[in-house]
Write a structure and sequence with these properties.
Strand order of the largest sheet of chain A: 1-2
Largest interface: A-B, 34 and 27 residues
Order of helices and strands of chain A: HHHEEHHHHHHH
Oligomer: heterodimer
Helix content of chain A: 55-70%
CATH superfamily of the largest domain in chain B: PAS domain
Distance between the termini of chain B: 21 Å
Structural class of chain A: mainly alpha
Low-confidence stretches of chain B: none
Low-confidence stretches of chain A: none
CATH topology of the largest domain in chain B: Beta-Lactamase
Mean pLDDT of chain A: 85
Amino acid sequence: MFAQLSDAGRAQQVAQRLADGIALGVLAPGERLPSEPELARRFGVAVITVREGLGILREAGLLRTRRGRDGGSFVATDEDDGRHGLLNTRLHALSQVEIDDIGVYFAAIVTAAAERSADRAAPHDAPRLSAWLADAGFDDAASARTTQSGFFLELAVLSQSPRLVREQIRLQADLGPVLLLGLTSSDVRRDALAQNRRIVRAIAERCPAHARDAAAELVAMLTARVLAAKGRLEKGTGRDEPLSA
Amino acid sequence: MSPSAPDLVELVDETMRGVFAQLDTWRTGIEAALAAEPRAAALDDAVAKLVLPVLADEDSLLVGAGFIADADVLGTRGVHFAWWLGPLEDNPVLGATTGPTRLDLSTRGYTEYLRDFRSLEWFRVPTTTFQAHVTGPYVDHLCTCDYILTFTSPVRLPGDGAVAGVVGADVAVKRLEREVLPALLRAERPTAIVGEYGRVIVSTAPGMPVASIVPDDAKRFECATAPFAVVPSP
């Protein structure tokens, strides 16, 4: 999340990274952010850029600023307004055709990783992944997002392809919170976990086609949820609801 | 003359011995530093002095190195990384660097799901077997985002000899390839060098591509220094 930024629109990128961190639960509600100079150092940008980025998040209701000795920027809590503001803003900014295309790209990365993993995993890899998945949290939205992100990354690692790993990391940093917003719903969490287990089984059985199919179904389900949330948002319903409720 | 399979084994062993000898030197230095019960910052300085000259070398075989202390050894919360990366080529996640940089885990937010680094092979095996260990080849997403081998060796506390952590070094597969490919290309038959689980590290055999796993019944010439082997095409 704090990897250095390089391109134009840096304040937006700062806001984006922090918003993703908040959506992923890496930054918890009520948590104090590092100081502005510290954030500037980590992102490799000027303090003024950080300040501008924080302003965007404050506008969106994701941050609270307190003055004084114990002051600073804090992640908004559920009692604060607009915790879903920025995710809504992002979803609003993406067109349907863009979301669909993101789904195509996401599926290409994840299915390739799943297929390759089933072909290239060592015998102990599937049991290890299975044990990790069994212990990982999937019961609430935040832990499901962390686990699902980690699972996708582990699949890329098992594929033995550094490029797939880098693409997965980049995809998660750019779009993770949008792609995984469906995990807010307990039904989706249940189905996603079942697909994850199918993928692990296919790796254990060394069956690339099954691993690929399960990964494709999982991504299709998550993408459908993003499109549905976009539809609800544009109709103006559910604006104050969690996005995929 | 074409190198034989045993010749190739010797070449790989010689390269591995170099890495393990480097780890031994660093371990001695780190154990000496630990005897003074240093704070984390003082130990970081000591480790940096050891590893930075090696990593800064333009032609270094090592792409990362350092010491990873078990929780509480230095009074830090959780595992402490005194780890440096050599110069990295441009890559979409980490950007390009021209000199050694310290690993900053806060820039690796996507590893949040890992929970405890001590369960990972490169820490778990040497600290439980008290032996040096080679992990990989594998895609390392913590440090380099590249295909690497990780060499780790246990570091003991002075006094009771309890394990304080691991001293380690990363070798990029693409760099190791430069060491062994010329000889491999001169071999009589297409040949692969494999790591643990028979996973191919470097290969001139189209039927045994890099990162694939060679069949269990393939004829192997085992290396002495690491769980590596030379596997000629049938």
